[in-house]
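Thanks for the sequence, V.! I ran Glycosyltransferase involved in cell wall biosynthesis right away. Repeating your input here for the record:
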Amino acid sequence: MKKIALLTNGVFPFVVGGMQKHSYALAKNFANSKINVDVYHFRKEENKTIALNQYFSDEELRRINFIEITFPVFRHFIGHYIYASFCYSKALYENVINKDYDCIYAQGFTSWYFLKREASLKVKLITNLHGLEMYQPSINLKNKLEQCLLKIPAKKIIQNSKANISLGGKLTSILYTNGAPENSVIELPNGIDDSWIIDENAIAALNQEGLKFLFVGRYERRKGIEELLEVIERTISNENYEISFIGPIPKNKQIDHPRVMFKGLIADVDLLKNEFLNADILVCPSYSEGMPTVILEAMASGCAIIATNVGAVSTMVDDQNGWLIEGDIKIGLDRVITEALHLDEKELRDKKLVSINRVSEKFTWERVIKQTIEAIYHIKY
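Predicted structure:
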């Protein structure tokens, strides 16, 4: 395999998000595997001046070609994002149609316009819908409506793609339940650069002031932040722990307590790594997820994990390295935080060790990119 087209709804650092970080890592690791990559993407206006050489080596940049495609913007109407995604996919198609690739790797909805026209392309098209949040539990009526709209392109992509990538866990059954052709689903996990993985001797000793919990993410209803904040308000004064929030949490949602810290968005990777290294337990109480990079980052940094059993989370977290919450999130958080607070130091350290070893054995990008390249070679058309 000599050349791949990577279609993505933005790529880190020009656009921040889970899919965008995944696209960034794919581009880097394809390049490091001596495969040329055309990255079709858009970037936000405020990030136009970001220099590529801050994030990619010279050797990587010799194999990566960035092609900017404008993501269309329309006035807000019901379904405006769906229509914009279709138009973006069409623009991608028009840029790819006359080029020769060994494979087209399409993230999110980017393959939508290609599907009924694939016969005219002398290429191999595979799609990765990532978290499939539209098929996971809804939170409220607004979320349910959004999910119904997102199912329109998702269903077409799932049912018409010759190859659907699943991050694993519950996502594979979601794909097949919603019409993925027989044997079309390829399980390929998310990954993390091995520079994140600490030596087990670097695991911090338990602080005398108690456990240090950490939440990393943006304020979004499906992330379960409101449930987490409610549990903290109820327990923080009576229990010996502290918690830090990394991400843009609105001021009116923040708790005023000396052991609850809101540190805002931290973009600097080294500073972010320090936050993970200083924490004992990452809390990820989402209603829906794919395979969050933040969990892999926390595991690689020696954290135990509290998370809901959604998406592909169960491939990373179990009772050996943390706690999986089933059912009601508030009840689950109450229970597992209490359990965590009553662990002795050895039990907590054992969970942290499992996190580090599991990432090392299963989820490094060195391993994942080999699996990805092998899977692409074996797709039957």
